[in-house]
Amino acid sequence: MTLDVSDALPYGPLERIEVYFEHDGPRFFALRSLSLDVRLLAFCTDEDDDTVDFLYLVLSPQRFQQVRSGSIGLREAFEAAEPWSIWRVVEHYGGGLPYADAGAVRFQEISDEDLPTDSARLNLPTPTVPALDLSQLEAEATSSLRTIAALELDAESQNLTEFSLRSLGQIGTRFQDSLDALAKEEAGRRNSRGVASMRATDEVQMNVLELRAASFAVVLGTDKRGRLLEHADSVEATLARLVGLVELGHQPDALIAELREHYGSVARARVVGLLRAVQQANSGLGVVLSPQGKRATAARLRADEVDSAVARIDALEDVVNPVAVPRGVLYGANARTGTFDLYDAVRARRVSGKVAPEAREQVDGLRVGMHAWVEADLLEHLDFSASEEEGGATYTLVRIAQRTPVADDLGVGDTVDQQDGGDEGPRTV
Q1: Residue 389 has pLDDT above 80, yes or no
Q2: What is the C-alpha to C-alpha distance for residues 234 and 337, in angstroms, rounded to an integer?
Q3: What is 319-418's CATH topology?
Q4: Domain with CATH 2.40.50.320 in the chain
Q5: CA pair distance 389, 17, nearest whole angstrom
Q6: What is the pTM assigned to this prediction?
């Protein structure tokens, strides 16, 4: 047992809040004052039949969080203690009623054998912000008339509600990139080059609202600047896609099948890029969607599940698809590097890549420019592990020939450089 030492110390009524070690009663524990904003750590240093000796260390709530999480070692906390913050408390049990007395001591007056070792520290999860509460997100979505989301992360060996700024920036960028690409998918406008249309993505731009503990959660809301109301249906549908994909991450083959069958190369690359960024941070991943006036939904992957999903994707072999370009414009070709750049007028997209050896002679001498009409055959290599800059797909030119313009081609060459996001004009060699 231990005594209530509230009367022996000048901090008012004390309440024990945690016990870290027990032996015939609590021997290492934490207390809080019910009248002052302080915490206390109590360490048993010696005991016999009649007495139990303790050292009490008085801490601010912030310092207590640092010590509890392991960010500050126990001996270091004693060394940094302010005057009148260390007390030697003796509980007396020999004869009569048990009682306690206390006296302040300086760190220099404490023997090494009574102090914790240099390596001794606590190591407990210690949230420093309120916990993530889905009911609160639902209330916020309703009151603010906008969709609320949350990005949940956790860092290895990080007990406090803290996260690497560099990793958070990378993950945040990949998260927004994924929403941009999924918004285009939702709108039915797949883009193979990775240039997101402002019209398709403006509605899903997210702002950081606050932080929550989960162990680290970023609460997000749609950016309503310049708009009275958001397009709630499209925002909800886009975020629901991402929640669904994260949920499929529990079964990597199911995730791969979904991405392969229902999403374009850019969306695939963006989602895989998000998983890679989370993996590099040694974190798990959770995505929460809280629409206006509806129940919140969430999907979460542990860090090992993120690792498994990325490993399975990395083990995939490329999928090679033949692509015929019956009407195209050859923007440029480089004989030295063996590269090409052309506009596919049928699919309204611009593609570039390597020239296969068998097509190099065919390319040599062809006119390039906005009116350089050609027909070509390509091989599209779909690679789930391609970098986001590659857009998840690479191309090889295997055949090309000059095409005589027909009536359908007239005027198209004058505008191809304005299509597909306003690309720069043709190049020649």
Answers
A1: no
A2: 43
A3: OB fold (Dihydrolipoamide Acetyltransferase, E2P) (2.40.50)
A4: 319-418
A5: 52
A6: 0.67
